[in-house]
Amino acid sequence: MEKIYPPDVYVAQSSPELGRGVFANRAFQQGELVDVCPVVILLKPLNQLPPRIQTLVYSWSALTDSSTPSTAVALGYGSLYNHNNPANMRYQAFDDEKVLRYYTVRSVEKGEELTVNYNNTGGAAQSEKDSWFSQHNIDPVVS
Predict the structure, then answer these.
(1) Rounded distance, CA 20 to CA 82, Å?
(2) CA Rg, the chain, in Å?
(3) Residue 141 above 60 pLDDT?
(4) Residue 60 parent element (H or E)
(5) Beta 33-42 vs 9-15: how paired, if at all?
(6) What does the alpha-carbon distance between residue 92 and residue 102 come to, in Å, rounded to a whole number?
(7) Which residue of 22, 45, 52, 93 has the fewest CB atoms within a 10 Å radius of its CB?
(8) How far is Cα 27 from Cα 37, in angstroms, rounded to an integer?
(9) Can you name the residues that pair with 21 across neighbouring β-strands?
């Protein structure tokens, strides 16, 4: 397993409506690895988890093409990234290492908030549907 070093990011207030977010501490190039987060795998389908936990986890079975329903809690900054569509990052699961890797999909400036797309269970930065918020009975904040 590779060593996991702290990413070059920081947590700050995104907006009063969004709460905390994760921001770039330096400029990142398109396709650059930003973060590697270890995950804790929960062997339960999403709908069997408490509602608040459902808003913090990733669909591990969808990301790893597993037939066993499972979700993952991302440690580190992984569960703090706010949503955008399109987002400026994509994420990818590595089942053998039990980590999520976050990559930029475009250049990101120093001080810019880093985002992922909550709607795309496959980790892509853009999604045609915006159903995640309605599934969790959350009114989305549009920035």
Answers:
(1) 8
(2) 15
(3) no
(4) helix 60-64
(5) unpaired
(6) 7
(7) 52
(8) 20
(9) 12
- Specify burial of residue 24 (Cβ count, 10 A radius: 0-12, 13-18, 19+): buried
Please compute, for residue 15, the number of CA atoms within 13 A of its CA located in the half-sphere on the CB side.
Answer: 9
Rama region for 118: left / alpha / beta (φ>0; ψ in -120 to 50; rest): alpha
Look-up of token digits 């986890």: 57
Q: Which of 2, 4, 8, 6 is nearest to 28 (CA)?
A: 8
CATH topology assigned to domain 9-117 = Beta-clip-like (2.170.270)
Rounded to whole angstroms, the Cα distance separating 120 from 109 reads 24
End-to-end alpha carbon distance in the chain: 38
Sign of CA dihedral 112, 27, 125, 39: negative
25-48 pLDDT, tens per residue? 999 999 999 999 999 999 988 889
Q: Compute, in degrees rounded to 10, the torsion defined by CA atoms 55, 57, 58, 59.
A: -90
Q: Return the structure tokens found at 2.
A: 């590779």
The pLDDT confidence band at residue 119, using thresholds 50, 70 and 90, is confident
Whether 92 contacts 74, CB under 8 Å: no
